[in-house]
Amino acid sequence: MTGFDVEELKKKAEASPHGEAFEILNQSSEARLGVGVSSKPSDLFLEVTLRVFDEGVVDVDVLERRIRAVRALVGEGFTVRSEDDVGVTCEKSLPESGVSVEAAKLWGLLNSHSENRPR
Questions:
Q1: Are 92 and 45 in contact, with CB atoms under 8 Å apart?
Q2: Maximum Cα–Cα distance for the chain, whole Å?
Q3: Average pLDDT of the chain, as a whole number
Q4: DSSP of 14-30, one letter per residue?
Q5: Mean pLDDT across the stretch 50-64?
Q6: 59-83 b/e (C-beta count within 10 Å ≥ 16 → b)
Q7: Selection from 49, 54, 69, 62 nearest residue 110 by Cα
Q8: Which CATH number does 6-112 carry?
Q9: Which of 90, 107, 83, 99 is nearest to 44 (CA)?
Q10: Residue 85, phi then psi, degrees to nearest 5
Q11: Which residues lie closer than 8 Å to 37 by C-beta, 6 or more apart?
């Protein structure tokens, strides 16, 4: 997982016309984990995007794994919304001090619901 600089993200958010900055921390063919900053109001958040569908094809096994992952994320306090007809995005605001630990924990959680995990 890549590191990030919260102060640099804050500067980018303040300079952005949308008042946000986002950095991808880790990604796979199934999921993307990133950290973002919103300057209005000042907010630090983690965002997980899960790919649910692949070009309109529904694989029931994949769908079941994604549902388990989304339930686990909701249990961790994440909100859920649909994303571009292919997946869902889960987001949670956090204090600056907790982002790195939470990000590592979440990537482990996502891998535990991955079709590529060791069986």
A1: yes
A2: 46
A3: 84
A4: HHSTTSEEEEEEEE-SS
A5: 81
A6: eeebeebbeebbebbeeeebeeeee
A7: 69
A8: 3.30.200.20
A9: 99
A10: 65, 10
A11: 6, 9, 10, 12, 13, 20, 21, 22, 43, 44, 45
Provide the residue ranges of all domains of the chain, joining segments of one domain with +: 6-112
Overall residue count recorded for the chain in this entry = 119
> Tokens 């995005």 — which residue?
89
Other Cβ atoms within 10 Å of 93 Cβ, number: 13
Q: How confident is residue 87, by pLDDT bands cut at 50, 70 and 90?
A: confident
* Beta-carbon contacts of residue 59 (< 8 Å; ≥ 6 apart): none
Pick from 70, 81, 73: nearest CA to 102: 73
